[in-house]
Amino acid sequence: MNITDEKQSEVPSNVTDLRDIPLSHVSDIDREGIIRRVLPETLVERVPVARFNSSI
Amino acid sequence: MPFRQFVLKVHSRCDLACDHCYVYEHADQSWRSRPAVMSDETAAWAVTRIAEHVKSHGLAQVHVVLHGGEPLLAGHGRLGRLIAELRGGLGGLCALDLRVHTNGVLLDERFLDLFEEHDVRVGVSLDGDRAANDRHRRYADGRSSYDRVIRAVERLRRRPQLYAGLLCTIDVANDPGAVYRALAALEPPRVDFLLPHATWDSPPSRPTPTAYADWLIEIFEIWSAEGRVVPVRMFESILRTSRGAPSLTESLGLEPADLVVIETDGTYEQADSLKVAYEGAPATGLEVFHHDLDAVARHTGVLARQQGLGGLCATCRACPVVDSCGGGLYAHRYRTGSGFANPSVYSADLFKLITYIRRRTAMPTHSVPAATMDALSAGFGDQEDVRCLAAAQRTMRRALLAGVNAHETPTAGWELLTRLDDEHRDAVDAVLDHPYVREWAVRCLRQGGDAGYLANIAGAAAVRAGAVAEIAITAVDGVFHLPTLGAFEAGSATTARLVAEGGRFSLEDLPGAVWHPLRRLTAEGLSVVLEDTDPHRRCHGHPVAGRLTEEEAAAWQRVFAEAWALIESDHPAYASGLRAGLTTLVPLDPPAGGGSASSAARNAFGAVAVAPPADPATLALLLVHEFQHVKLGAVLDLVDLCDPTHTGLYYAPWRRESPRPLEALLQGVYAHLAVTDFWRVRRHRSEDGPGEVQFALWREQTARAIGDLDGSGGLTPLGARFVSGIRRTLEPWLDEPVSGQAAAAAAELAERYRAESAALRR
């Protein structure tokens, strides 16, 4: 049997498991990732671009 | 791609003589031939060019950074005129995010007054503690700049609305801990750690092969241990890009560059950092007096920085951290001969740093056991399978709640809830598991909800925890609702003070408020909430019933118990999943035209809304039907079954008013698989006359819709696998015999539905 024919035992999701994360510690990244998934229309649509930062 | 970031070089000279400065100390020496200061005429042209660019591209917001040299050398008067010109020229056209980057030594109260008047935020360059800063950031005569810069930052701290952050150029000879702590002590809204500009031709001073990674990792550890109090853009960008979100900085990530520099003489330049590559590297040959910004946007150098992954060398494209690194800052890739088609000169550092942060912060994600996915795709799913979906819903609600809080100023509700979350997690979980908490949070995030209701959620959790609490709660739709408990009638009051202790509670200022406790419907092995108090249950597309009388509630109890007995005896394949996931039944008003009505809402996992059914069998059918939507909605929360960019619309015989998007068609198929199964069993019961016709009708219609799903080209590989599961369950039913009369009646109904649909679309 080809190894690629083997069935995956888990179907992965990209949703971070927050059940054991205290509410006060839910990170912006995880929060936004889930909101983007559940409510894509609520996040301001903007073309992501490289943000300037340069010291002088 | 239009430009949205504009760096205006308002003064090309500097009052410091930092020996690491990329403007004066590297390959490009074009500053020598430029005017020291941007003239009013050049500034006016620059603003005109930006304004026409905003208009022609319909830009909603642009960012302008006043830069140098040292921009404050332009003086109060000239800088004031330029800022006023920018606000005047762009203010009516788009949102303008206006900033100034300064070394800070000249930043006095007069400048700050000017910046306050025109809403200009200030970033200050500071390399850390005194020893670190003075290693490079000195006056030409060798004097330290540290005290003056610190005074400037202290001034900014007194005007926090102007304080944009600190920019620190790394020197690995400095003590990373001391640098970080010195910067953090100044409470900046953001810190940028910047790799000193270098190329393969002129590599950075590096005592070990990954000295910069090691230096940053030391800070990352302190930053993490101290609760990440100060936002560090580099670390945040690595964390974000590691989870698929965009980078926050030009030096990381694959996002295209949309930045242009306008020099003091009006010439357009590409990225400022290119000055380290070679003489003339940033030049475009274009200027504000004769060329618009679209001409600059077509410049090959500008386009080269917008190619994302495709613009990187083969080594970078094959790298496992390329989505975070993005090849590093464009300028840092330069090498004579191969130009910019190289990894960054900091490649080894970036690889080590990103890999380290990823390993250090790996967060578990949800997953669905393959066996659960198979059971669900077959149309069923037992207790364990549905519990797996319910577990992920808890994550969703926690994220959404945190999202509501992030959009509001911190409230007493959030404070109480987070305290209870630490001390009484079970009580908080019980309240957050209430289906309509998510509906409320979604409304808030869509700007349609009352964020004050967070206090009601916290109050309910306090009551359930038996904690002592006092909090002002909010009336929504005429009630002070406490999720999982019930509601007080609010009358004309909009807020009330909830006092809770030892599980008892009251409204201190409305002692006479009528309390409507939640009631439950119970059956053998199942108990669900009869939800007629939560204002957020109004999300089912049908009018909900008001508070039921005791008689009405008793009638629901009778029909529910009988319906459940019927599900358990005749449709056991659905009973187990329902037992694990059905928590709430919302009574709807009877439909005006008669018949039945039922609904599941995507943001209310566990709830089903139903109008008073004709009989227990109808309720059993509606519960089974709607719970299919509940299950599939929860699957879709976790994984993509349909390509979100697919725009096809499809006929759905169960929703004849308009063609349905692919995901809605899938939802209908999934529900009608169970409807078919219901009638497959029920048709053998003599009391259900139309059962045979219903079975014949829905098996055919579901099969056709499965064909549409298969042929749509809009299913993801997982979606195709899911639909295969549905098909495998349905296929044997297509071979079950039905009478010719029933088949004909079903065909006639199917034809009538198509005709109705066509008529409605005309």
Q: Which keywords apply here?
A:
heterodimer, A: alpha+beta, B: 762 residues, alpha/beta, nine-stranded mixed β-sheet, 26 helices, 23 strands
Short structural description:
The complex is a heterodimer of chains A (56) and B (762). Chain A has 56 residues and is an alpha+beta fold.
Task: Compile the SSE list and pairings.
The complex is a heterodimer of chains A (56) and B (762).
Chain A: E1 10-16, H1 28-38
Chain B: E1 5-9, H1 40-57, E2 61-67, H2 75-90, E3 95-102, H3 109-118, E4 120-125, H4 130-136, H5 146-158, E5 163-169, H6 176-184, E6 191-194, H7 211-225, H8 233-242, E7 259-262, E8 267-269, E9 283-287, H9 293-297, H10 300-304, H11 314-317, H12 322-325, H13 347-361, E10 365-369, H14 370-377, H15 383-406, H16 412-423, H17 425-432, H18 435-445, H19 454-465, E11 469-474, E12 479-482, E13 486-489, E14 495-501, E15 504-507, E16 515-517, E17 519-523, E18 526-530, H20 550-570, H21 572-581, E19 584-587, E20 598-599, E21 607-610, H22 616-638, E22 649-652, E23 655-661, H23 662-682, H24 691-711, H25 717-734, H26 740-761
Parallel strand pairs in B: 1-2, 1-7, 2-3, 3-4, 4-5, 5-6, 18-19, 19-21
Antiparallel strand pairs in B: 7-8, 8-9, 11-14, 12-13, 13-16, 14-15, 17-18, 20-21, 22-23
Helix pairs in contact in B: 1-2, 2-3, 7-13, 8-13, 14-15, 14-25, 15-18, 15-21, 15-22, 16-17, 16-19, 17-19, 20-21, 20-22, 22-23, 23-24, 23-25, 24-25, 24-26
Query: Number of helical runs of chain B?
Result: 26
CATH superfamily of the largest domain in chain B: Aldolase class I
User: What would you call the quaternary organization?
Assistant: heterodimer
Q: How much is the radius of gyration of chain B in Å?
A: 33 Å
Distance between termini of chain A? 61 Å
Most extensive interface, chain pair and sizes: A-B, 43 and 80 residues
Tell me about the biggest sheet of chain B?
9 strands, mixed
Shape of chain A: extended
Q: CATH topology of the largest domain in chain B, which one?
A: TIM Barrel
The sequence of SSEs of chain A as H and E is EH
* Helical content band of chain A: 10-25%
| Share of helix of chain B, binned | 40-55%
Rg result of chain A:
18 Å
In this structure, how is the largest beta sheet of chain A organized? none
Tell me the strand percentage band of chain A.
5-15%
* Structure annotation, total helices of chain A: 1
CATH structural class of the largest domain in chain B: Alpha Beta
Strands of chain B, count: 23
Strand order across the largest sheet of chain B: 6-5-4-3-2-1-7-8-9
Task: Please indicate the count of domains of chain B.
Answer: 3
Separation of termini of chain B?
41 Å
Keywords (chain B): Iron, Iron-sulfur, Metal-binding, S-adenosyl-L-methionine
Protein name (chain B): Radical SAM core domain-containing protein
InterPro entries (chain B): AKG_HExxH, Aldolase_TIM, rSAM, rSAM_sf, rSAM_SPASM_FxsB, Sulphatase_maturase_rSAM
Organism (chain B): Microbispora siamensis
